[in-house]
UniProtKB/TrEMBL annotation:
<dbReference type="InterPro" id="IPR005467">
    <property type="entry name" value="His_kinase_dom"/>
</dbReference>
<keyword id="KW-1003">Cell membrane</keyword>
<keyword id="KW-0902">Two-component regulatory system</keyword>
<dbReference type="GO" id="GO:0004721">
    <property type="term" value="F:phosphoprotein phosphatase activity"/>
</dbReference>
<feature type="transmembrane region" description="Helical">
    <location>
        <begin position="12"/>
        <end position="29"/>
    </location>
</feature>
<keyword id="KW-0808">Transferase</keyword>
<keyword id="KW-0418">Kinase</keyword>
<keyword id="KW-0472">Membrane</keyword>
<keyword id="KW-0812">Transmembrane</keyword>
<dbReference type="Pfam" id="PF02518">
    <property type="entry name" value="HATPase_c"/>
</dbReference>
<feature type="domain" description="Histidine kinase">
    <location>
        <begin position="108"/>
        <end position="308"/>
    </location>
</feature>
<dbReference type="InterPro" id="IPR003594">
    <property type="entry name" value="HATPase_dom"/>
</dbReference>
<dbReference type="GO" id="GO:0016036">
    <property type="term" value="P:cellular response to phosphate starvation"/>
</dbReference>
<feature type="transmembrane region" description="Helical">
    <location>
        <begin position="35"/>
        <end position="56"/>
    </location>
</feature>
<keyword id="KW-1133">Transmembrane helix</keyword>
<dbReference type="InterPro" id="IPR050351">
    <property type="entry name" value="BphY/WalK/GraS-like"/>
</dbReference>
<dbReference type="InterPro" id="IPR036890">
    <property type="entry name" value="HATPase_C_sf"/>
</dbReference>
Length: 314
C-alpha cells in the first residue's frame, strides 16, 4: 500500500506543478481570474477520480497469482510477496515435521510404558511375589515418563538455566543412587576416579545428561561388571564393559530413534535417550562423544569448556 501511495503522490505532485505553471501564465499574461478558477475546478475531480481508479486497479492486479509486473514498484512488491510465501511454506513444513516428531515420541514412549505395565501385571498375577523384581520395572516406567516430559521441555528450552559450580563426583554419586534398582538387578558396582573436580553447569540438565549415559552403560553391561567414572582433560568419562557399538553405527548413535545393531541406546524400543542427552548438552554448551574401547565396552564422554572447570584441593 505504501508503494501505491508513493506512485499516487507523484501523479498528484505533477498535477499541482502543472496548475502552478498555468497560474504563472495567468499572472504573466493577465488572463481573467474566472478562467483559471474554472480550469482548476473542472480538472481536479477527473484527476482525483483517475488516481483512485489507478490505486484500485493496481491493487486488483497485485492480487492475481500470475501477475506480470509492469513497473519497478510492482516488481518489488511481487518479489516480496513471493519471498513471504516461501517463508510461510518453510515455517509450515517445519511445524508439520515437529508435530510428526512429537507424535513419534509419544508413540515410542507409550509403547515402552505399556510393556512395563504388562510386566507388572504378570508379576502381580503370581500368588506371592517379592518387591525386588518390581523395582526395575517400576523404575523403567517412571524413567520413560520422565524422558517424555523432558523431550517436550527441550522443545521450548531457550535460556532458562541456573549455572552454578557443581561437585562432579557428588553429582555422579547422586545419579548412581537414583539408578540403584537397575544396578542392583544387573549386579553392577560403580567406581569413581574423578577427583576433586567442580564444573560450572546447570544442575538439572547436567544430571539428566549423566543419567542417560549411565543408564546406557548399566543397561548393556554384563552382570557383575564395573561402571567407571573418570576425569581427563576437562572431560567426564563413563566407561562400561558391554559389547560396544558396531563401527558403522557410531556416527549415528545420537540420532533420534536410532538403535543400531546392538541396540546401544537408552531404551531398545525408543532409541531416544542419547538423542535427548545430546540435545540437552547443546543447550548448556557441552559436547558428547561415544567411542569404542580397544578391549571391550564403550566410553561415553562429556566435554566441558576449560573455563567451566575448576580443580580443588582436599
Amino acid at each position: 500500500m505504501r508503494k501505491w501511495c508513493k506512485e499516487a503522490a507523484r501523479l498528484t505532485i505533477g498535477y499541482w506543478l502543472l496548475l502552478g505553471l498555468l497560474a504563472l501564465l495567468w499572472y504573466v499574461y493577465r488572463l481573467p481570474g474566472t478562467l483559471f478558477a474554472d480550469l482548476v475546478w473542472n480538472s481536479l475531480w477527473p484527476v482525483l477520480g483517475w488516481v483512485a481508479w489507478w490505486l484500485w486497479h493496481t491493487k486488483q492486479r497485485l492480487k492475481q497469482t500470475n501477475l506480470i509486473p509492469r513497473t519497478l514498484v510492482e516488481t518489488e512488491l511481487t518479489r516480496r510477496l513471493a519471498q513471504a510465501k516461501r517463508d510461510h511454506r518453510h515455517q509450515l513444513l517445519q511445524l508439520q515435521a515437529r508435530q510428526r516428531q512429537e507424535l513419534d515420541y509419544v508413540d515410542r514412549f507409550a509403547h515402552e510404558i505399556k510393556n512395563a505395565l504388562m510386566a507388572l501385571e504378570g508379576l502381580t498375577a503370581q500368588p506371592t511375589v517379592a518387591s525386588a523384581p518390581l523395582k526395575p520395572v517400576l523404575y523403567q516406567a517412571n524413567r520413560n515418563l520422565d524422558l517424555l516430559l523432558n523431550a517436550e521441555r527441550l522443545q521450548f528450552l531457550t535460556n532458562d538455566f541456573a549455572f552454578e559450580w557443581l561437585d562432579l563426583t557428588a553429582l555422579c554419586q547422586t545419579v548412581v543412587q537414583s539408578l540403584a534398582p537397575l544396578m542392583i538387578a544387573q549386579q553392577l558396582r560403580p567406581q569413581f576416579a574423578i577427583g576433586n573436580v567442580k564444573v560450572l553447569s546447570d544442575r538439572k540438565w547436567l544430571t539428566f545428561i549423566v543419567t542417560q549415559l549411565v543408564t546406557n552403560a548399566v543397561k548393556y553391561s554384563p552382570p557383575g561388571r564395573v561402571v567407571t567414572f573418570a576425569w581427563q582433560a576437562s572431560t567426564l568419562q563413563i566407561i562400561d564393559q558391554g559389547p560396544g557399538v558396531a563401527p558403522s553405527d557410531l556416527p549415528r548413535v545420537f540420532e533420534a530413534g536410532f538403535t543400531g545393531q546392538n541396540g546401544h541406546q537408552t531404551t531398545r524400543a525408543t532409541g531416544m535417550g542419547l538423542y535427548l542427552a545430546q540435545q540437552a548438552a547443546t543447550k548448556i554448551n557441552l559436547t558428547l562423544t561415544l567411542v569404542n574401547r580397544q578391549t571391550h565396552g564403550i566410553k561415553a564422554e562429556v566435554h566441558f569448556p576449560a573455563a567451566h572447570v575448576k580443580l580443588t584441593k582436599l
